[in-house]
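Changelog note: in this version the structure field was regenerated for every chain. One regenerated record is shown below for reference.
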Amino acid sequence: MSINVLRTSDGWWAVLPQALDSARAGETPTERAVRIDTKAVTTAELLADRAAVREAAASGESGTPVADLVALPPVTTPCRVIAQMVNYRSHAKDSGFTGDIPPTFFRKASGSVSGPHDTIVRPSHVKFLDYEVELGLVMGAPLPVGTVVEEQDLPSYVAGLVLTNDVSARDVQLTKTQFYESKSYPTFTPTGPYLALLEPGDFDHLLNLRLRLNVNGVPRQDRTLADMIVRPAQALTLLARFQTLDPGDLLLTGTPGGTALKAPPKPVEKIAALLPPALKWKAFFNGQARNPLYLRDGDLVTATIATPDGRIDLGEQRTAVGAAT
């Protein structure tokens, strides 16, 4: 069974399994956690000390209420942060893609990683701020260039899972065709609260994971991994054609449909293609300005990823949106 790990300013904590058992029974659990006796500072160091994690989880101590702990991102930085683009069928449909979609990766600055309850800070020049709930894979072993990863090999390379939000400045992304900048501002990758360290049997349940994101309590995204186009083993194989990964690195695996940004209707898209670029973008963003789904200052974004039976539960993110000061 997976073990959920929490990071705070003074160390690492293992969430007690009985709290998860209560959740599976339909009860409202008081989650509690036990401090892990480890000298690990980075995520990679913690992954090398799995024995200490298991010992804490099985300690039988009463623990500390999780609500009393201030969670930091369980993925420490600096690290590689890589993301898959348009990797859910529902998102591809929203984005206007038809036919086969070539697998595409992009990088995010690890300085964008923030805590699961930290404010998402909107830069002053960004008007169209979007959300993307994503499952993050945390590497537990080196992935050299040229590696071929089969489904049965996943436990050899992936140590655990985290809940992430690939926050996006759409006006920067679209006008500059610049993914790196538009998705790399500080606080643009809320991560956590939990790092779920998986056992080999847990990987059989990945497709049951359900990604949900609400804004101000209103559902926006809700899909399982069964909607995914390129699944984790294939994604790692494709990435390893040119990219090495190391323990503690993070791969975001795409977002389902339901984001604020959607492709315009085909007739509008055809007409816009005839316009000079400046006029095309002016017309497009004039239309986007009437879209109420983009994040605004004061919004509260909540997100969860879990299997229906609670076998894997990555916790809940609660992130407010605020303007840069």
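Spot check on this record: The chain has a mean pLDDT of 92. The two ends are 44 Å apart (CA to CA).
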